[in-house]
Amino acid sequence: MGSGPSVGLLGPLAVRIDGRDVAVRAGKHRALLAALSLRAGRVVPVNELVAFLWGADPPARTRGTLQTYVMRLRQLLGDPSLIRTTPDGYRLVVTPEQVDVHRFATAADLARQAARRGEPARAADLYAGALDLWRGPALADVPSESLRHDEVPRLTERLMVAHEERNDVELALGNHERLVPVLRGLTSDHPLRERFWAQLMVALYRCSRQAEALEAFRRVDRLLGDQLGIEPGPELRGLHQAILVGDPALAAPAERVDPDVPDDLPPDVPGFVGRVEVADRITRLIAPDETGTAVPIVVLTGVAGVGKTALAVRLAHRLRHRFPDGRLYVDLRGHAPGPAPAAADVLTGFLRALGVPPEQIPVDHDEQGSLFRSLLAGRRMLLVLDDATAPDQVRPLLPGAAGCPVLITSRDDLRGLIAVDGARRIALEPLTTAEALELLGRTGAPAEELAERCGRLPPALRIAAASIGGGSVARYLDRLGDRHPRELAHADLPPAARRLFRLLSAVPGPDFTAEAAANAADLPVDTAAALLAQLAAARLLRAHGGRYAFHEEPARFAAEPAEDTTQARIRLLRFYVRAVDHCADLLYPDLMRLPATDGGAVRLPRVETAAQARAWLDAERANLTAAIRSAAERGPAEVSWRLADGLRGYLWLGKHVTEWLTTAHYGLDAAHEQRDRAGEAAMRQNLGALHWRLGDFETSIAQYERSVELHRASGDRTSEAGVRGALGLVRLDAGDLAGARADLEACLALNRRSGGPRSGETAVLTGLGVLAIDADRLAEAEDLFGEALAASTADGLRAGEIAARTLLGVTARLRGEPGRALEQLAEALRLSRESGFRTATARALEAVAAVRLDLGEPAAALASAERALAELRDDGDQRVTTNVLVVMASAHRDLGDLRTADEQFQQALTKARRIGFRFGEANALVGLAGVRRLRGEPEEAAALCGEALALATRQGLRIVERAARAELAAGSGAPGEVCGRAPGGPGRRQDRAPRD
């Protein structure tokens, strides 16, 4: 921590200043210091301090008494400047890193990020460090009822969540044995915290202590019943059922692999038997040919249920060591309910798995295939294409590298692949009698008869084995009669389970959750979860990680319904609409969307935070895409455009451009066919946002303009205003500054005349402020950003507040006020890190780096810029990346490393030109000119600077024009401003969804 002050609140109050402990004995002094420390570096208003110290019974001379306590605390700390007086209150002059509460929050957030990046070992270390900061109950000896009521529960909940997340990481690392005593202690200390009990049950199960895991469930069941009068929640009950049936999803994680190596395989099938000779033959055929150039392709064919997928997946797991660059898997759903995935969707998934940032994935199918093949060149990877139906479905997915064999499963022969592409076909036969008996776990004549009755097919044998349990095979045969085992298993189910099984054939996507099933069947979620567990135990459904899917054969059986499934499908689609709306409210509440409609009562998923909303949408993305297609093709048509509209912000944030394009066009076609003006306007707006994201400004503007026309024709002025605002921001990015100003000003006027929400104005005010910066009207820019800040803070719009504060910092820097700039940027950084907005964090760090350059601190500037670039690693916003590269290059120039500076200015220039970012292009040209001048290349420097000046003048970028003229003056020896210094990017794009 260094020699500065440090304050500990996670336990008894602890203070160290300049390496010595400071005892704070008086209760009021402890409460005062705790209150100031919780807001480290920020002003705490007087009225809040009064409440913290005296609650509802303040003294007569409140302010005077408070001043006395502040004076005495200053004396006690030994440095009066540590507590500053402001017009509104008092501020403790410490950074968040000097208070353990804030260090804990930062460490826990970094741990979460590491876990999301697939770095569990790093996450575990960070969680351990965060939890070590706790020395006891928070604020343990601080005598303040107000603090105990307002702050302690919040801090304690953060501690509990960190424990839960750390436990999840340890389980993912396979550390279940050493976690058991930890979880025993946590369940003892917090017996009503169900998540700890669930983690204990999983840890015990993975230690082969199934009986103890079930006993843990019985204990928490009794505890909840005795103390709260309730039963365990769905997670615990589902886990209990999964332990009873030995769900393979509960098994310990497989051996850790490099997180950068793609591995999309489903779990290996437990209880696999036989297939030794076939497996050896496939292994020989897919062995990469070290000298050949042809791609080895094996087509594994056979009847439904013969075990093609199980064998392919098992082989892929066993051959991991032969394919060090990874394994890719996709279910092509050739014989499954619902539509098969398009080749573009599959390639998009493969490219993501290979590490291509979403915004760099081409939309054109041929370009996707070309990029895919180029990425596989020189690699050793295995591709598994499951359940294919035709050669044309497979060919776009084939690699061009001999080191990347392909294993395909299909019920069809795929003769075209054999004749044209050189594929080798292997027909998979049913199990031998001995193998079938091994799978049944029985011997003798009745078992042999049953094996034959099952066709010696693994799914039928598994269903029969599950139905028999510990009973008699002969008695089971008598009951079976002429039926297939699945028919008897179905008949043995309670009527409610049979009904649910039939209705689930209406599900358009690849899988479903208990909530989805509950809504489709109009059942309580708990009831649906219990019925799904029964169906999985009967081997009629596959269960994995809380999700369910049909086996091939039961899917066909369920599709012979005893009742019409139309209403079940409609109920499911309406559930998806409401769930997406709920997630949208959490993720982007200020984003303009179609007004919600009352679709009747639905059972929403348990999603309470923005992080949970994003996780739910990630898990359901394929199902939602299928639902949009189903609604567009089979009705209700309105669902297609409502779902597509609700997903717009999520698809923007995640850069899922392929799914975005697909869903928006389904919605647009449906709205156009139904002549629904509002729906078509929303879909045009959707496509405008998509093409904006892709950098195709011309198409984006055309779509937005058509949306404006439709809203105007329908008299919806508020929506018209919103789209005009988005249109202005696109024109701003495209470099049409006059058009941008006209649209943004029209948006403000329309919004205010129509009584639209003030929250809709924040991005518009920010855009107008950027225009003012471009025109070198800095006072006007500051006023606009201040107005945007006021609107954002009033409405609780965190992204808007961060953007406004960052731009206020940029403006202060350009006005020559570095201290004020750093103050605004520090707050923007704190808020962006707290919110997890990585692009916004990068933008603020880039602005800090620019200030450090102005202060003559190039090493500090470079450090900030490098941190900014690290924040952009997963997000990759190209405009912000361009600005960061300009600042990094400037820092290298000031450090005397002209070679690196030249390279980075060139990189920035290339990026800016590729995406049409005119400000970034002009800025990079000015910087590059300065480097060439310093290298003694005056003619080239003058040419580059002239190009920058022409571009800046043409685009109306006055601030860059001024920098270019200064550089020209430096090159000619005339007096001018700081030479070769680009002005720094004004931050055109923040970490936000478009405000359209």
Automatic annotation (TrEMBL):
<dbReference type="InterPro" id="IPR003593">
    <property type="entry name" value="AAA+_ATPase"/>
</dbReference>
<feature type="DNA-binding region" description="OmpR/PhoB-type">
    <location>
        <begin position="1"/>
        <end position="94"/>
    </location>
</feature>
<dbReference type="Pfam" id="PF13424">
    <property type="entry name" value="TPR_12"/>
</dbReference>
<feature type="region of interest" description="Disordered">
    <location>
        <begin position="970"/>
        <end position="996"/>
    </location>
</feature>
<feature type="repeat" description="TPR">
    <location>
        <begin position="681"/>
        <end position="714"/>
    </location>
</feature>
<dbReference type="InterPro" id="IPR016032">
    <property type="entry name" value="Sig_transdc_resp-reg_C-effctor"/>
</dbReference>
<keyword id="KW-0804">Transcription</keyword>
<dbReference type="InterPro" id="IPR019734">
    <property type="entry name" value="TPR_rpt"/>
</dbReference>
<comment type="similarity">
    <text>Belongs to the AfsR/DnrI/RedD regulatory family.</text>
</comment>
<dbReference type="GO" id="GO:0003677">
    <property type="term" value="F:DNA binding"/>
</dbReference>
<dbReference type="Pfam" id="PF03704">
    <property type="entry name" value="BTAD"/>
</dbReference>
<dbReference type="InterPro" id="IPR036388">
    <property type="entry name" value="WH-like_DNA-bd_sf"/>
</dbReference>
<dbReference type="InterPro" id="IPR002182">
    <property type="entry name" value="NB-ARC"/>
</dbReference>
<dbReference type="InterPro" id="IPR027417">
    <property type="entry name" value="P-loop_NTPase"/>
</dbReference>
<dbReference type="InterPro" id="IPR051677">
    <property type="entry name" value="AfsR-DnrI-RedD_regulator"/>
</dbReference>
<dbReference type="Pfam" id="PF00931">
    <property type="entry name" value="NB-ARC"/>
</dbReference>
<dbReference type="Pfam" id="PF13374">
    <property type="entry name" value="TPR_10"/>
</dbReference>
<feature type="domain" description="OmpR/PhoB-type">
    <location>
        <begin position="1"/>
        <end position="94"/>
    </location>
</feature>
<keyword id="KW-0238">DNA-binding</keyword>
<protein>
    <submittedName>
        <fullName>DNA-binding SARP family transcriptional activator</fullName>
    </submittedName>
</protein>
<dbReference type="InterPro" id="IPR005158">
    <property type="entry name" value="BTAD"/>
</dbReference>
<dbReference type="GO" id="GO:0006355">
    <property type="term" value="P:regulation of DNA-templated transcription"/>
</dbReference>
<dbReference type="InterPro" id="IPR011990">
    <property type="entry name" value="TPR-like_helical_dom_sf"/>
</dbReference>
<keyword id="KW-0802">TPR repeat</keyword>
<dbReference type="InterPro" id="IPR001867">
    <property type="entry name" value="OmpR/PhoB-type_DNA-bd"/>
</dbReference>
<dbReference type="Pfam" id="PF00486">
    <property type="entry name" value="Trans_reg_C"/>
</dbReference>
<dbReference type="GO" id="GO:0000160">
    <property type="term" value="P:phosphorelay signal transduction system"/>
</dbReference>
<keyword id="KW-0805">Transcription regulation</keyword>
